[in-house]
Amino acid sequence: MDISHKLEELALSLYRIDAVKFGDFVTKSGIKTPVYFDLRVIVSYPEVMELISLLLYDHAIKESKFDHVCGVPYTALPIATLLSVKTKKSMLMRRKETKSYGTKKAIEGHYKQGEICLIIEDVITSGSSVMETVADLKKEGLKVEEAVIILDREQGGRQNLESNNVHIKSLFTMTELINILLKNNKISKQTGADVINYLKNVQAPVPVAEVDRTLLPYEKRAELTSNSIAKRLFTIMATKKTNLCLSVDLTSSTKILDLVQKVGEHVCLVKTHIDIVEDYTDNFIVQLKELAQKFNFLVLEDRKYADIGHTVSLQYSKGLYNVADWADCVTVHSLPGEGILKALNDSAHSSRGVFLLAEMSSEGNLITPDYTEATVKMAAKYPELITGFVCQKKSTFKDPSLIQLTPGVQLESSKDELGQVYNTPEKVILENGADVIVVGRGIVSAKNPEAQAVVYKDTLWKCYTKRVSGKLE
Ligand code: S5P
């Protein structure tokens, strides 16, 4: 077929059915625009859908090698369907809505790792929607090298995608489309000039290249954080060469101090449960803080606050333990909502931090993926307060300035009789993204806790250096 003739026919059809409009609009990326392209209407015009799929096939796809097609939700889905049928290649569908309970897959359809998936999209501005789909497909082990697009708005999307190794083929650029409409007297010269001028001046923001936080060394991450405790903890880890947190879950203050005296030099953080200490005195805290000073570690009170903001601010700064006075950081549940962070933000002084619980290590815990996601979002509003997350998975958050504190670690995978699940250092650091590793009974219950702390420290540090070297096989 005569492609340029058919392209002209398509441009005029899109204008006729109001899929391309001129006026004052705002795009999904938040850019003001005098021209708007809305292909959702094509489902009402089967002849236009047919023409689009024929043109994409002839112009862009015939020569491409791929195993699957995947439309970027939602507008491109019917077109991807037509192309799947035409090329007899199977279709994959990406779920756009948030997944709940971890049972729904992000990608629907049958596929094998290493197979090639071709992306279909209607319009690209910044390229971010295509990138989201590419990222989900890649997570499943699929290869994505090419995206075919109806319209390239020429605002940076092509460059953004090409720099992420996604090659773009489009039916039209915006300039080509405008020229066809001008030639056919569908728009005035002034409108045409406005659009061309606008394209020259307004480029979509370049999506920041995503850094894998787990590949950055602690000292680099120390520079990125807004929370003073995260900065100190990253720095301590880098200088002492240890990412071990001792969870000193003993009930006698002398035993705690005795153990910390022995292992203090091997840890970056000591985690307490102050309410299990049977002989608590203020002097115990004085001595613990002296050890912290001597051995250069921080103290985390694992209180797991979970009440309304008002109560939590009292629990934090009043009562027998006066945690606000001595704990460098505390653990907090997001369950009660943002008020809990507001309360701590108001009552904690500036050199304090919060680890928010985004996931738990215990079997059958009721935290869902939606809860975790909402927790991470909540934390983003308090960058100066949040030190990091208590969590189990690398994918839980991306921000390299925050610390992943991961408990449930022993040298061998196992479980205790009450549902605690233990993973190995290799698993939690190399696969699951842990930055600070919490070990309790693995050290506390060992015959020689000091020697065992050294074993943990060395093993954990080895895994970390392997991770940041990027040489994971
Ligand atoms: O999900 C969690 C969160 C925490 S803070 N799972 C946990 O086990 N913890 C704490 O880590 C727990 O309260 C305990 O103090 C420590 C793990 O101790 P272990 O003896 O099982 O290593």
TrEMBL record:
<keyword id="KW-0328">Glycosyltransferase</keyword>
<comment type="similarity">
    <text>In the C-terminal section; belongs to the OMP decarboxylase family.</text>
</comment>
<keyword id="KW-0665">Pyrimidine biosynthesis</keyword>
<dbReference type="InterPro" id="IPR011060">
    <property type="entry name" value="RibuloseP-bd_barrel"/>
</dbReference>
<comment type="pathway">
    <text>Pyrimidine metabolism; UMP biosynthesis via de novo pathway; UMP from orotate: step 1/2.</text>
</comment>
<protein>
    <recommendedName>
        <fullName>Uridine 5'-monophosphate synthase</fullName>
        <ecNumber>2.4.2.10</ecNumber>
        <ecNumber>4.1.1.23</ecNumber>
    </recommendedName>
</protein>
<dbReference type="Pfam" id="PF00215">
    <property type="entry name" value="OMPdecase"/>
</dbReference>
<dbReference type="Pfam" id="PF00156">
    <property type="entry name" value="Pribosyltran"/>
</dbReference>
<comment type="pathway">
    <text>Pyrimidine metabolism; UMP biosynthesis via de novo pathway; UMP from orotate: step 2/2.</text>
</comment>
<feature type="binding site">
    <location>
        <position position="440"/>
    </location>
    <ligand>
        <name>substrate</name>
    </ligand>
</feature>
<feature type="active site" description="For OMPdecase activity">
    <location>
        <position position="304"/>
    </location>
</feature>
<dbReference type="InterPro" id="IPR000836">
    <property type="entry name" value="PRTase_dom"/>
</dbReference>
<feature type="active site" description="For OMPdecase activity">
    <location>
        <position position="302"/>
    </location>
</feature>
<dbReference type="InterPro" id="IPR018089">
    <property type="entry name" value="OMPdecase_AS"/>
</dbReference>
<feature type="binding site">
    <location>
        <position position="271"/>
    </location>
    <ligand>
        <name>substrate</name>
    </ligand>
</feature>
<feature type="binding site">
    <location>
        <position position="420"/>
    </location>
    <ligand>
        <name>substrate</name>
    </ligand>
</feature>
<dbReference type="GO" id="GO:0004590">
    <property type="term" value="F:orotidine-5'-phosphate decarboxylase activity"/>
</dbReference>
<dbReference type="InterPro" id="IPR023031">
    <property type="entry name" value="OPRT"/>
</dbReference>
<dbReference type="InterPro" id="IPR004467">
    <property type="entry name" value="Or_phspho_trans_dom"/>
</dbReference>
<dbReference type="InterPro" id="IPR014732">
    <property type="entry name" value="OMPdecase"/>
</dbReference>
<dbReference type="GO" id="GO:0006207">
    <property type="term" value="P:'de novo' pyrimidine nucleobase biosynthetic process"/>
</dbReference>
<keyword id="KW-0808">Transferase</keyword>
<dbReference type="InterPro" id="IPR001754">
    <property type="entry name" value="OMPdeCOase_dom"/>
</dbReference>
<keyword id="KW-0511">Multifunctional enzyme</keyword>
<keyword id="KW-0210">Decarboxylase</keyword>
<dbReference type="InterPro" id="IPR013785">
    <property type="entry name" value="Aldolase_TIM"/>
</dbReference>
<feature type="domain" description="Orotidine 5'-phosphate decarboxylase">
    <location>
        <begin position="243"/>
        <end position="454"/>
    </location>
</feature>
<comment type="similarity">
    <text>In the N-terminal section; belongs to the purine/pyrimidine phosphoribosyltransferase family.</text>
</comment>
<feature type="binding site">
    <location>
        <position position="441"/>
    </location>
    <ligand>
        <name>substrate</name>
    </ligand>
</feature>
<feature type="active site" description="For OMPdecase activity">
    <location>
        <position position="307"/>
    </location>
</feature>
<feature type="binding site">
    <location>
        <position position="249"/>
    </location>
    <ligand>
        <name>substrate</name>
    </ligand>
</feature>
<dbReference type="GO" id="GO:0044205">
    <property type="term" value="P:'de novo' UMP biosynthetic process"/>
</dbReference>
<dbReference type="InterPro" id="IPR029057">
    <property type="entry name" value="PRTase-like"/>
</dbReference>
<keyword id="KW-0456">Lyase</keyword>
<feature type="binding site">
    <location>
        <position position="361"/>
    </location>
    <ligand>
        <name>substrate</name>
    </ligand>
</feature>
<dbReference type="GO" id="GO:0004588">
    <property type="term" value="F:orotate phosphoribosyltransferase activity"/>
</dbReference>
